[in-house]
Amino acid sequence: MNPARRLTPAQENSLAIAAAVVTANAYYIHPIIALVADHFGVSHARIGLVPALNQLALAVGIFLLLPLGDRYSNRRLTILFASGQTVSLALMTLASGFGAFVLGSTLLGFFTIAPYLLPAYASKRVAPERLGQVTAKLTAGVILGILVARVGAGVIAEHFGWRAVYWLATGLMVAVTLGLPWLMEGGERSTSGRQSYLRLIGSVFPLIGQYREILLAGAIQALNFAQFIALWLGLALYLTAPPMGYGTDTVGYLAGLAAVSIASTPWLGRWSDTVGPRTARTVFAFIQLAGILLLWPLGGTLWGLLIPLFIANLVGPGIDVTGRMTFLALDPSVRTRLTTVYVVLMFIGGGLGSYAGTLAYDGWGWAGTCLLLAGCSITLTGLAWLARRYGS
User: Fold this and answer.
1) Which of 31, 138, 245, 339 lies 20 to 30 Å from 211 when distance is taken between CA atoms?
2) What contacts 42, CB < 8 A, 6 or more positions away?
3) Which residues 6+ apart lie within 8 Å of 283 measured at CB?
4) Which of 190, 212, 246 is the last residue of a domain?
């Protein structure tokens, strides 16, 4: 690699900020979902279509578009998909009807590929001994984007209305889209030669049969992500409705508990290296289950909710990390495609969790949300235990 083309510290930090902005777009809806539902006059069950279709479209986009990163310039694709996100956000911001808002959110999900292309781009422009450090920096940007989106959206919407959130988000995406051509240097070369697009996509399926545990790892993370989204959507509806009656800013402040995962995840990763990913994942699953089961008995007060939410945020990302560890140690030539399978399954889970979470709350209130989460967590823990035996 030509040293002149390596990323500078300023470029690394700028890419991390870009990763935060392009990731945040899917998470603004979490604390403000009740306000959006009231504005468009739709039920709590129907508003679940917004995050559900966003996550399912993201899964489709990752499957159909992410493999293009092995054939075309990561720079060109990142700029193209970021532009698609910007247009989609603008549609959501200006939408006068619920259908247009859902369409914008769905297109937004389909084009949210940049967070997965940026690490690939950066990996080609850093010294090998700094690859882990730069990858961690971009990952921190993603986590920060999710955190700021959920906290900031609640606070801004409480004082300025929900559309102000999307006006700001659109402005940030315009700035990122205009800045990416300057920030990202060209001159990349394809790594897959003249392989056709259909062959590139089709090569994923034989790997599933060869590495069957990827389905188990993906199913576990699908449940993990489903309950994460169902929890926060249900919580936003619960806290802003009688008898709780809090504002969306309170929901945003609670979402700030996710900051604990920024500190805990590196430690959980190091411990997983010591005991093995499958054992660690099982331990994390049992701890998370304990937290989920406390949601109902402690859910009558805001202060009581802090305990189960802290527990869930403490170990939830660790389940994802250990799931990735089970296949990232395999042959480097198959890791990207196995990651595609894993991430697609994760976002399918996110889509189903989005709709199931709002549907459960619409039908049975907070009790329905807690019952749904308990079922997901029990199933997740059972699969983690099965995967531990399968991999031993």
Assistant:
1) 138
2) 98
3) 275
4) 190
Of 224, 242, 368, nearest to 291 (Cα)? Answer: 224
Q: Which two tokens stand for residue 322?
A: 């250990």
Size of the chain in residues: 392
Asked if residue 336 and residue 291 are part of one domain, the reply reads yes
73-126 per-position pLDDT tens digit: 888 999 999 999 999 999 999 999 999 999 999 999 999 999 888 887 887 787
Q: Are residues 172 and 53 in the same domain?
A: yes
Please tell me the distance from the alpha carbon of residue 45 to that of residue 361, in angstroms, as a whole number: 8
**How far, CA to CA in Å, does 246 sit from each of 37, 136, 232, 239, 253?**
16, 36, 15, 6, 11
Question: Is residue 118 located within the same domain as residue 233?
Answer: no
Query: What residues contact residue 80 under an 8 Å CB cut-off, 6+ apart?
Result: none
For 288-333, write each residue's pLDDT tens digit.
999 999 999 999 999 999 999 999 988 988 898 888 888 877 776 7
326: domain CATH number?
1.20.1250.20
By C-alpha distance, which of 175, 152, 147 is closest to 165?
Answer: 152
Residue 182 and residue 232 in one domain: no
Domain that holds residue 376: 203-392
